[in-house]
């Protein structure tokens, strides 16, 4: 499975760690940057990762900034993107099962790396349940 990943300077270090973990777990990772701690603008990276997901270059995307909030606001502007800012394992599972989220947002200044790795694992291994939840996603699409 291909996963697109992107971060700003606030999420750079966590991106490196999550990318390494994903590659060790057998995923192909498309890394859209940033590639240093130098200050950058998070929407430049959400734009690239969401494009990779909507154009099906990648099945899922992961975006990391300081809080995860900026990335989630930017990503959810894109039609077809359902970005979830997650800071706990329960929500990681529920947002795949109920919301079919296709982008996971993490806050590197909020969530420790150990928990972030558990969130990523849980999110990737959960499956959309469809049925009544699909009806709700259809209503989001119609808004
Ligand atoms: C960058 O300083 C910070 O604002 C950004 O990483 C993110 O937290 C925005 O929501």
From TrEMBL:
Location of the active site: 65 (proton acceptor), 98 (proton donor)
Highest taxon in the source lineage: Bacteria
Matching Pfam families: LacAB_rpiB
Organism (species): Fundicoccus ignavus
Keywords linked to the UniProt accession: Isomerase, Lactose metabolism
Record EC number: 5.3.1.6
Protein name: Ribose 5-phosphate isomerase B
Positions of D-ribulose 5-phosphate binding: 8-9, 66-70, 99, 109, 132, 136
Family: Belongs to the LacAB/RpiB family.
Coiled-coil region: none
One GO MF term: ribose-5-phosphate isomerase activity
PANTHER family associated with the record: RIBOSE 5-PHOSPHATE ISOMERASE (PTHR43732:SF1), RIBOSE 5-PHOSPHATE ISOMERASE-RELATED (PTHR43732)
EC supergroup of this enzyme: isomerase
GO BP terms in the entry: lactose metabolic process
